[in-house]
Amino acid sequence: MTPIEHIVKCISLAPQLDKTNLPSDEEWxxxxxxxxxxxxxxLLYWQLxxxxxxxxxxxxxxxxxxRKAHAKRNQEIADQLAEILAACxxxxxxxxxLKGALLAPTVYAEPALRPMNDIDLLFQADDIxxxxxxxxxxxxxxKHKDADQGPGVVKHLSTYRxxxxxxxxxxxxxxxxxxxxVEPHISLEESWFGLKVDITPGVWxxxxxxxxxxxPALRLxxxxxxxxxxxxxxxxxxxxSSVFLQLYDxxxxxxxxxxxxxxxxxxxRTRQVKAQPFVYAGFYWAKLLYSAPxxxxxxxxxxxxxxxxxxxxxxxxDASGLLKRTQHPPLVTFQQRLQRxxxxxxxxxxxxxxxxxKWQVWQTALTxxxxxxxxxxxxxxxxxx
Length: 385
Fold this sequence. Notes:
mainly alpha; 54% helix; 9% strand
């Protein structure tokens, strides 16, 4: 069994740890390293302590250190979020809290169990300019990008960070210090090289008032929340980003709020926004890896709406396959970047459900002058002049 397979079995909603056939000390150290890299170290450490498993000292130390670091960081993130929510409330700006900043304190046994990268917040289009002013008044500096540049991600076009608070490593799960970046979203559209799905219409009408860190906020309705998590997780796989924590989120939401889910409404909403392939994949993997309590009837209905080829592809990716798909060496040469661009578009086209949709993906290669690779080439040429 591979390290990632051990991890998902240990932290599953139905743990499957065979105490009569435990990994060796060396294997446990490899398991700890993989858990740290994919953001599952706090969950793994917590689950193993729940069953009082005596880990080898080195593996235990590695996991314990990360657990403590994430506890500290998540508390600082909570304080950071509370400050933003309070400032927005004073200006009557509605804030819908997304992903980890919402889930860590609401559906996890302890907030520290859910590592976070950024603070993702959804604002209404009419409020975004004022919201960015609020962030600047709190000491954040914004970086803005063109929606046409790179892979065409448009759900947020700016990121905000306080000066001097950058993480120590590129991996967010290894940087326990520093403020988290704040990403003010204007939509929930997922997009990648011409592949698009948008669940935003109507989410504000269905939003649910909550209190987070003693401040007023909003969250998505349960149906919208599950759609968002599933689509977001699938796009992580499409983009080649780590997905194990995002899939665990789905199981935790169902574990806490599952009795309130209206599955027929979820199917209707999924079909309405044409997100069946992405919701099917997210749900299938969450159930496969973590035993997320998703009804088989719902999965079957979603599967019928997907092409047989895509269903076969989704089913071909188990824990090891997902790890391989979402782990890539750094791009250090121009040729590597070109090859990666082709592979990215090939993967995106796999998920497109029509010839026109596939053409939307491949035609992005015709606008090479707008790609990150071209921008890098321009910078290199300037430096050589």
